[in-house]
Specification:
This protein has 14 helices and 18 strands. It has helices spanning about 1-10, 15-25, 35-55, 130-145, 165-175, 175-180, 230-240, 265-270, 275-280, 295-300, 340-355, 380-395, 410-415, 440-460; strands at about 55-60, 70-75, 85-90, 110-115, 115-120, 150-155, 180-185, 195-200, 205-215, 220, 305-315, 325, 325-335, 360-365, 375, 400-405, 420-425, 440. The chain binds ligand BES and zinc ion (ZN).
Length: about 475
Amino acid sequence: MSLDAVLAKIDETLPEALERLYAILRIPSISTDPAFKAECDRAADWMVEELRRLGFTTSKRPTKGHPMVVGLSEGPAQSTAPHLLFYGHYDVQPADPLELWDRDPFDPALEETPTGTVIRGRGTSDDKGQYMTFLEACRAWKAVHGALPCKLTIFLEGEEESGSKNMIPFLQDNAEELTADLALISDTALFQSKTPAIVTMLRGLVKEEITIHAASRDLHSGFYGGIARNPIRVLSGLLAGLQDEDGRITLPGFYDGVEDLSNELQAQWEALNFDHNGFLGGVGLSVPAGETGRTPLEMIWSRPSCDITGIWGGYTGEGFKTVLPAEAHAKISFRLAPGQDPAQIRAAFRAYITAGLPADCRVSFIDHPASPASQMSIAKPAFETARRALGAEWGEDAAFIGCGGSIPIAGHFKDYLGMDTMLIGFSKDDDGLHSPNEKYDLESFRKGTRSWARILNDLSTQGQ
Ligand code: BES
Ligand code: ZN
């Protein structure tokens, strides 16, 4: 069977595929840090060349930020196969803190670990290693068949990790070119690190950065301590008030539009038998700390959350400085459930902080991009087709799952291009996305590539 030939090709050429992956991993394309602008550009150039070598008509498209890369491969003439668009992001998170890495984050290599062979390096699982599985599947397909089985657009972005500020205008300006029958994204995880999965629900994200200002300068804490307003105390009091003892967020209107899980989804998720003890145990925790009365899966997939992701102010260096700070800062991230409006959540948060300010304090807010949650309809036959193809590769039925993280582009594809997205990724819970010593299992890379070959095959022959 010709699919078998493609799968065999993937296994045979794995060492070369890894060399190609290393080449793009070596480029530190950290999108959030302006010092790495040239590196982001170099990563885009590398991807353009790679897509051209794969036979795609490819261009690097400038934006106000980092460039997009778009490649097109026309399908076979008079084909009934769907036009697919595959999206990935070539930018990565900063590697800090560098001292916690066991090797240079941008000098990738294979490493033997007690749980198997891993590819170590920044971007291995988020998202270079993941999107390269798709490109490697295309390469093997072409090597065997001479041409791809369907019309395919590859769309790579360089600003996903820094908020995709230029994405919506780009989609609007290039809507016709980018609209396909279905979008595919490989930027999510396996279920419990072993079960293949299609993500059908993503949480949204509102990021807030606030500064509470009090005195006009830092003060001696003996001279002024007791009489002067302390902005750190004000900030921590306000932040503490965001949640009640049942773990519910206290902002007025916060839960507007949030619905309980449908019985169908509830049953589906229950059948997954999620091992939350293992999930928490893997990071040294033991007790689910979300809303009372919610299941662990609801806490991470379908319920909104509010977390303080950074807080600073005063003197935090070595030793001790008896200082009463003039300012206090925090970063807060809200993960949103379907039905919540990011603008409304932002407004409610700002109103709460502003209303809670005592005398002699003022607040400033920094705008960061926000995005709503998305929920995929699995009505298209493509979802069942892909589920079966994944099952054939992994020897276990694929699950429809949620994902607590955010991939705003999936919502944008629907809203601006009317296009559904199928999210299939192969990372594992211990991959350390955004963390030191990020890795991607060699098994994820190999079976991920083989999975895409199967999915391409089945979508092209069985329709979408
Ligand atoms: N690949 C992640 C999304 C993800 C997170 C998938 C966890 C699976 C598990 C994606 O690149 C990401 O990190 N997204 C950001 C949002 C973005 C707007 C900065 C996130 O979720 O924090
Ligand atoms: Zn990602």
